[in-house]
Each structure stands twice: as C-alpha cells, then as structure tokens.
Specification:
The structure holds 2 protein chains of 2 kinds.
Chain A lengths: L1 E6 L6 E6 L2 E7 L1 H4 L9 H11 L8 E4 L3 H15 L4 H15 L2 H9 L5 E3 L2 H10 L6 E7 L6 E9 L2 E9 L4 H11 L8 H8 L7 H4 L3 E3 L5 E3 L15 H7 L11 H29 L3 E5 L6 H4 L2 H4 L4 E3 L9 H13 L19 H10 L5 E2 L3 H13 L4 E4 L13 E5 L6 H10 L8 E5 L3 H4 L17 E2 L17 E2 L2 E3 L5 H14 L3 E6 L11 H10 L4 E4 L2 E4 L10 H4 L3
Parallel strand pairs in A: 1-4, 4-5, 6-11, 11-12, 14-21, 16-19
Antiparallel strand pairs in A: 1-2, 2-3, 6-7, 7-8, 9-10, 13-22, 14-15, 15-20, 16-20, 17-18, 21-22
Helix pairs in contact in A: 6-14, 7-11, 8-11, 16-19
Chain B lengths: L1 H47 L17 E2 L14
The chains are: A alpha/beta, B mainly alpha.
Chain lengths: 580, 81
C-alpha cells in the first residue's frame, strides 16, 4: 500500500511516500523550488517521491493531508467574527487564498498531479503527534505537541501504544506557546516562522531580566496549562504579532537589521527561560497522567534544542524521540503514518534512525554535470586518500562544501548537504561568517561529533538520545575543552551538537574520525550548505553555484574535489542573494 | 507579418491586464460585501447577544487543559472538517 503524505499552504510544504509502512522518500518543497520556506503545493517534492519509488501517481492508494482545511477555516472565520472590524486587513489579504487553493485540495490534486482517489485529512496536531510516535523506537510513549496553531489546537497531550495514538488533552487557539515565542521573535526584529532559532541563539548572551514582566503576558498553572493575556498580542486580528501594550511594557520593538542591545539579549533570555519553565511543568504533568517515561515531542516548539537538552534533568522522562522535521513540514509524515497505522490498522515496523530521505545523485550524474559545465576537478582514487586529503584541508582551515548521498529531511544539514570546517581554529567562526554565511555574529556554529565520543566533550545526558543525531539537543561543552573547540562553543558554554553514527552515514563519520586523528578532536563544524536567505542546496548544480558565489574553498561531491580557485569565479555574487 | 504578430501579442497582454483588473475589482467588491455584510452583521448580532467565537477573555481556572474524551471515528478522516 502506497500512501502519499502532503503538507502545504501555510509554511514549509513537504511530501513523503510510504510503502507498506516503510518510508521511501521525504523532502521539503523549498529544496527544489529554491524558495525558502516555500508553502506552495509541493509539486516537485511529490514528483521526487514518486520517482524514488519508481511509480506514478496511479499506483498511490491514498493521499493523507496534514490538517483539516474546513476546520481551520472555521477558526479563521471565528477570528474575523470575534475581532470585527479590526481584522479587516488580514481578511482581505488571506481570504482569497482560502477559496483559490486551501479549500480546494481535491481539485488541486486532480489538476496538478492527476490524483482522483480518496484523500484522508488528519488533524494538524494528530499529524504532529503521529510524525514523532509512529517513527519512534518506542512501543509506548507519552506524546507532546506544541506549535503556533493547527486548526484550533495549539498544544496537545497524548499517549501512543502500538498502533494506537490517543490525544488526552488540548489547549486551543489563541492560547499558544508557539505564538508567544513568535511574538517575541517579531518584537526582537526577526521574522516570524523563520527566525525563532535566532532568539534561541541570542538567549545565550542575555540575563532573564524580563522574566517577571513576561509572566504578566501568560497565566501558567502548576500542570503547565496556560492562557495568554491577549491584551499584549494582536496576532489574532492584525498583521503584527504583539500589541501596543506589549511595547508599553517592554519598550519599543527592535527594528529589523538594527543594532542588538543588551535589552534585546535579556528579552530573548527571558523568553527562553519562561518557555523552558512552562514546558518542564507540562512534561511533569504529562508524565503524571501517562506514567510512561518515554516522550515523543513534535511541533515547531520541539525544534528548540536549548530546551530539549534540559528535558531529562527537569522532568521524569528517561528517553525522548523527536523527528528531524518536527515542524509543519513534517506533518505530511505524520499524516501518512497515521493513515497507515491508525486508520488502516496496520502494524508498526519502521523507525526513523537517520534523516537521509531526500534525493541523491550518482557518480555518473555528478561527473556529467562537471564535464558538461567545463568545471575543473580531481577525483580521489579511493576512500582513504579522500579522507586523508579532505581532513588535511579542514585542518588547514579551508571551508569545505560537502554533498554526499541522500539529502536530509528537515531543516538541519546533517552531513549530506553541509559545510564542514575546523572547530579548533578560534577564528573559524569569523572566517565562515565572512566567507560564506553572512549571518549575525551572535549565532553559534554546530559541532558534529562521533556518537561514542560525545560524552567526552559534552556534558550531555548519560545516554545521548537519538534527537542529538538530528541536531536537536544543546548540551554544555565540558569546561576543559571549551577553549580547544572555540568555534563551536557558544558564549554560554554550550554546543548544539550532532552525534554521528557510522551506520547512518559512513563517509561523514569517517571524515570526522580522520579529522580527529589529525587534530586530536573528532569534531567538525557542521553548518548548512546555503547562502543566508536561501534553502539548503539540493543538486550538484546548487552546490557548485553556492560555492562559486561564496568563499567556500572546496566542494566535495562523491569523490570529486572541486577547488574554487581553479574555476572562474564569475557566476554569482552571493551578496546579491544574502538576505532573510 | 511581424508587425501583426507584435500587435496581437500586445493586444493579448493588454486584454490580460484588463481581465486581471476586472477580476481584482470584482474580488474587492465581493470581499467588501462579505466582510461588512456577512462577517460584520453576524459579529454585531453576536456581540449584542454575548456570544464569543474566540476564548479571548479567559477567567483564571485551576487548569486550562481541556480533556479530549471522544476519539475520532475512522470515517471522519475522509472529511475536510
């Protein structure tokens, strides 16, 4: 049985295909369309999934969509009815898209991909819950979902047992932790649904001076349930996330691209501490009602790796699973698996142990691209010479573009479409920012470490949980190593590490080890292979274009090493593309 | 021949722009009517009768969790609502 999962029309559209309960392929549309956070119908991602399975749309038995459009429209209408006439502008801007596409999914499926069979509509938060639980290694787990908003739900507690997944409690719109975090993101001059991770990075520089004031905007109970004081917000009727009262309380909002002050850093730290406090309470309550010590966590809030790294310390949970694309893009995965296991009552047999579910390119395809484009390159004769050669380049602080195997599923580069460099060089962060990333200096770079060495360099949980493989946990770097790997140690002494296991990605793992033999540290800087403002690269052409438009020194695709210096640098000016 | 082609191309583009303008105008009028007549009237009547569509003025409670007692029926997944 083939089930095609689809999520789209809000942000980060994506598609996945499962065959008899096994994931075949999954990808976000932005990687193909080259539009960051593309939310349009995932035409290219669907085409890729079908191609990967070697089928056409007629072989797909069911399509599972990640929410119930009419129920969501009901919430949108309710907002306008409640907030009339203040909701005038959002009504005009948003309503046409509802009638043109959001409420016409069947028509769009028929017209764009020729699909005419049944469509299953899985509620948004049930899709989130399923996206974590059904692909987790747990037979039984407590399930927590937190995001901005689905149809009505913004937070749910649940339990999964075998094929069964049951929601136990909910909090509904407009009371939302995701929207609170987004409001602070907007207040700090960053983009909503895009820059929340910047607030997380900024938090490390601040003190939670505004924590007590922030408590005024949300009433939190001992069981972690909460209600926003909506006098401080305008997201439920306006084009802004926060109201004038919020600015009266906390001072004027920061304008985008202006200087970041200590106040802004303190605000970010306060928001992060508040979020953590609330979620620890929620988790303790969830444990109380389920008595299960395994947790599956999903929704956009689950991408807050700073919070995730502290969960075991502050809650009774002993094991955790977070799927690599815990945000809305991953809803398609949950919808497809929910349909298979819960609706069609099929047994579970799949665990997502790695994130490599996107397209890959063969050696022949890469060679043809290089030859056809007249690109100068060399090809390593064997694996050992490749590892030794590239490790030496990294040790010499060159910046390496790394395109290997199947593209990652989710927002993080995890060693398939990555930029690798030397974490022991104190200037590497600055070099990367100047040469490639053009990003804010307060944002840390992530370390990739071999799984068995993680505890040697990081004060993580005793058994580093699987989400660390997906770069979803932040842990303190051990104090005696902080000055040895300065480029991946954040100002607060932490690192958002990625643990790498050989069975997941042998060449990447071996590369980290080879660098470790040269430098004494089996750790690499791993940052996403993209120019600021663009999606992570997908194809060899995207990768080459990115290298030539930036200061990346070398590009390794399969065994082909391409030096930027050997090729004419007249294709693209990255500054032209560097924006959010 | 070239001039005729050029003229027809320009005419097509002009017609398309005109059609887009008409569509935008009709959309605007329809949306205005829906918002002020549909949404507006219902909203005013609801406000007068004390009906709320969103939980915006929450009274403090012991817990804000709302229990979910009902499990969705299998057939409900084939519906958009």
């Amino acid at each position: 049985m083939y089930i095609l999962g689809i999520s789209c029309f809000y942000h980060d559209s994506g598609a996945c295909l499962i065959k008899d309960g096994q994931l075949v392929a999954a990808a976000l549309e932005e990687r193909f369309s080259r539009k960051k956070h593309d939310f349009s119908f995932p035409h290219a991602a669907i085409a890729f999934c079908l191609e990967e399975a070697g089928i056409d749309i007629s072989a797909v038995d069911h399509v599972a969509f990640y929410e119930k459009p009419v129920l969501k429209f009901d919430r949108i209408l309710s907002q306008h009815l409640e907030m009339f006439p203040r909701s005038f502008l959002p009504f005009f801007l948003a309503l046409p898209s509802w009638f043109n596409e959001k409420l016409r999914l069947r028509h769009i499926l028929r017209k764009k991909i020729g699909y005419r069979k049944n469509v299953l509509y899985i509620p948004h938060h049930l899709s989130h819950a399923a996206s974590a639980f059904y692909v987790s290694p747990f037979e039984e787990a407590a399930v927590l979902t937190l995001d901005g908003a689905g149809e009505w739900q913004t937070s749910t507690l649940g339990i999964g047992r075998g094929q069964q997944l049951q929601q136990l409690a909910e909090i509904n719109f407009p009371h939302s932790l995701g929207l609170l975090y987004s409001a602070v993101t907007a207040y700090l001059g960053f983009k909503v649904n895009n820059d929340e991770y910047k607030v997380m990075g900024l938090a490390g520089y601040g003190k939670p001076r505004y924590l007590e004031k922030l408590r005024k905007v949300i009433d939190v109970k001992d069981d972690g349930s909460f209600a926003l004081n909506l006098e401080y917000f305008s997201f439920h009727y306006g084009m802004r996330m926060f109201s004038k009262k919020f600015e009266e309380e906390f001072g004027p909002a920061r304008k985008p691209e202006t200087e970041i002050s200590q106040d802004h850093q303190d605000m970010a730290a306060s928001m992060q501490v508040l979020l953590e406090e609330i979620i620890f309470k929620i988790c303790r309550h969830l444990y109380e009602i389920t008595k299960v010590d395994k947790l599956c966590f999903a929704g956009g809030v689950a991408l807050n790796s700073l919070l995730n790294g502290k969960l075991f310390k502050h809650t009774p949970f002993k094991e955790i699973y977070i799927q690599p694309e815990a945000g809305d893009g991953g809803g398609c995965l949950g919808a497809a698996f929910y349909a298979y296991h819960a609706v069609f009552d099929q047994p579970r047999s799949f665990v997502m142990e790695h994130a490599y579910w996107g397209p890959q390119y063969t050696r022949a395809e890469m060679k043809q691209f290089l030859d056809d484009s007249g690109i100068k390159y060399k090809e390593y004769a064997d694996e050992n010479s490749l590892l030794a050669g590239v490790a030496k380049l990294i040790k010499d602080s060159f910046v390496i573009g790394w395109l290997q195997g199947r593209m990652e599923w989710g927002p993080r580069a995890l060693g398939a479409r990555s930029i690798l460099s030397n974490p022991t060089n104190p200037k590497m962060q600055e070099i990367l920012n100047v040469k490639v990333k053009h990003r804010e200096p307060f944002r840390p770079f992530a370390p990739a470490v071999t799984a068995e060495k993680a505890n040697e360099y990081f004060q993580g949980d005793e058994v580093v949980p699987m989400p660390a493989d997906f770069m979803l946990m932040v842990y303190p770097v051990r104090p005696d190593h902080r000055d040895k790997i300065p480029a991946v140690t954040h100002v607060d002494g932490t690192g958002r590490l990625q643990t790498v296991r050989r069975k997941q990605n042998p060449r990447y793992y071996d590369m980290i080890k080879a660098f470790g033999e040269l430098s004494g540290y089996p750790i690499l800087i791993n940052t996403s292979f993209n120019i600021r403002g663009e999606p992570i690269v997908c194809t060899p052409r995207d990768a080459y274009r990115c290298m030539m438009g930036t200061g990346i020194d070398y590009l390794l695709m399969d065994k082909f090493l391409i030096a930027r210096a050997d090729n004419p640098n007249d294709m693209w000016d990255s500054e032209q593309y560097a924006h959010d | 021949m070239g001039m005729v082609k050029e003229f027809l191309k320009s005419l097509r583009e002009g017609m398309k722009q005109f059609a887009d303008m008409v569509a935008d105008s009709v959309n605007l009028l329809l949306l205005l009517a829906v918002y002020f007549v549909g949404i507006g009237l219902v909203s005013i009547v609801a406000k007068l009768s004390g009906k709320h569509f969103l939980d915006i003025g929450r009274q403090s409670r012991q817990s804000y969790w709302q229990k979910i007692e009902k499990r969705p029926e299998r057939n409900s997944f084939y519906r958009m609502f």
